[in-house]
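Predict structure. Chain length: 492.
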Amino acid sequence: MYKNISLSSKAQGLILVPIHSETAGKSPRWPKSARAHDGCQNAVSAGTFMAEAGATFTVGTTHMLVGLGPVEGFSTDRMRTVGAKVGRALDKISSSAIAIDNSASWGSDADAKRAMGGAFAEGISLGTWRFDALDGTATKREARKAPLTLWADDAAVRDGFAHGLIIADGVNTARRIGATPPNIANPAWIAAESKKIARDGKMKVRVIDYAQARKLGMGGLTSVGQGSAIKPCIVVIEWTPRKISARNKSDHLVLVGKTVTYDTGGYSLKVNNGMKGMKYDKCGGAAVMGAMQTIAALKVPMRVTGILAVAENMVSNDSYRPDDIIKLHNGITVEVTNTDAEGRLVLADALSWACDTMKPSAIVDIATLTGGVGVALGHFCAGYFCNQPNLAKQVEDSATSTGELVWRLPLWPAHQEFMRSQHADILNSNPLRAAHPIQGAAFLSYFVKPEIPWAHLDIAAMATAESANEVTGGGPTGWGVRLLVDMVEQRS
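Prediction complete.
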């Protein structure tokens, strides 16, 4: 793991020569630096190096061949994986500087090269990061290495590097927040971290504390968090750039993140070790924090607000119970049938408050909301719901662009009616488990004004990787940061 990764102002260090697998066994058109080194040509022409995606072959002390895989299907997704594998290879040999030669092979125009450069840099940063904040005196893992610098022989690729490193920093922030354990990462800690991110990004931040939330009628947030000694809050992070383009003057995107710092299930207690890993129930909010950090760093020319609904769902004599009936911010009454369906309660108050006070042109919420979405879609994509075609297209376009894939699930009036209660307006969870992921979205729909475009992303199956994946390894993935940032960039 590197202390940091940055763009170099000049060519220096190990020269990386990227080549496609069609080159294997042939004599390719080599860049100037590789033509001067017989070892590069011999490795390829002899078939020693087959150039599979992410494969590396070090030639002496000066060059490294990097495989891009076949030309067909060459994409930013693959390049992100290539970057992660190359980053880990560089980490092993403690390289402190690299220069890309032959980056012309990354695309035929500046936009393509910029995109590939961004994905490559993202991959290096994501693939070499790990959570090391709590390494102790008995650790066997290496301390952070000296910084790594990147350079490329093409200006568009260098631009991509700079952009990709900013994106990756935001993703890694989300991963760090997700990984931080609950004895540290409680609601007060989330508020403090948000203030740091806001200060560094020259953003405004405010915290609605427990007493204020009660006065505002946020019965969902306060009920979920009232059993904890560390009370819940709403954190608001506001990015307002100095210059807003004319087309964006009326555009205000609001991002809302479920930030349950630990979820015991409340009195509907998680059993059979089902509580393990519930520190990751804050990953929706972590994605919003990472996205806001990135939006400010990129100086995106439009107004964006991030709202975190922060609570710790604990069991005590003050905890809310099944059978309680509570009133939420917009006056809707909710019969609690399951205290483990808490995320929708904290989100509901945040969504309603945002609709009333933020004047949003669109709202996107992101949450580890239901286990059912993982049953339905597996770990292949997030489920999402949307009430407006244009916003749905933006979500899907950004999902395709970033590789953070989504699948749209239905949300019909019948689903909303399914959430009706005999004793209150609605239930927080229908005892019938039918349409489990849709129940969460149907509940939330009661708290968003119909005229406001709204999308709900359920990332319960995507926020963490139980087994190591090729880019981020195991643990928190930072899923959603890239998608949210891309949406903002495309809108601006």
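Summary: The first helix runs from residue 32 to 35.
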